[in-house]
Amino acid sequence: MDDAPAPRPRRGRPGYDQETVLRRAVELFNRQGYDATSIGDIAQELGLTKSAIYHHVASKEELLGAALDEALEGLTRAVATAAEDRQASAAQRLRATVEESVRILAAHLPAVTLLLRVRGNSAVELAALERRRQIDEALAVLVQEAVAEGALRDDVPPDLISRLLFGTVNSLVEWYRPGGPLTPDALAATVSALAFEGLRRP
User: Fold this and answer.
1) If we measure between CA atoms, which residue out of 139, 199, 145, 147 comes closest to residue 169?
2) Buried b (16+ CB within 10 A) or exposed e, 160-197
3) Which segments does the entry list as coiled coil (predicted)?
4) What would the pLDDT profile of 161-190 be if each residue is shown by its tens digit?
5) Ordered domains of the chain (ranges, CATH)
């Protein structure tokens, strides 16, 4: 019979990797606002000391920048892919971009939510807003090409069409929750169908 004592449980709080720190920080930014959140708040959320947070990141701004990059890189890639695919019509490329934007939003919902809330109060936010402006301009060009080829109605300004289309996509952050009955692919297909085919019964 082995009378050796059972190993004593390890003391102390569990460790976190940088990705986990980022995810929890973004949740906190979205819940109580970036400006109202301190490194101390993030540390408290994770059950760590402030010095332990600084082991992973240099500043709160670094966490914000990483989250905004996550959202922007996916959207930038979707727009660039559409622009490069010259074998498809502009309307096909626009529709594919709308659908991919929905999938990106679903896959990176907290980061995209944070992106849509920035107001340019810091250099990091201003840089993100400039990248958003460039994406919006590329989308407007794509809409204009679809109008020019006769695929979209020409009695509505292309920039307004673009704002309405992607305003609809962005509004999903207010109610869509991953893991529910509506999959990202189904959501993308539904948004696309309503945007390009309307509500009229076929």
Assistant:
1) 139
2) ebbbebbeebbebbeeeeeeeeeebeebbeebbeebee
3) none
4) 999 999 999 999 999 999 999 999 999 999
5) 14-58 (1.10.10.60), 60-197 (1.10.357.10)
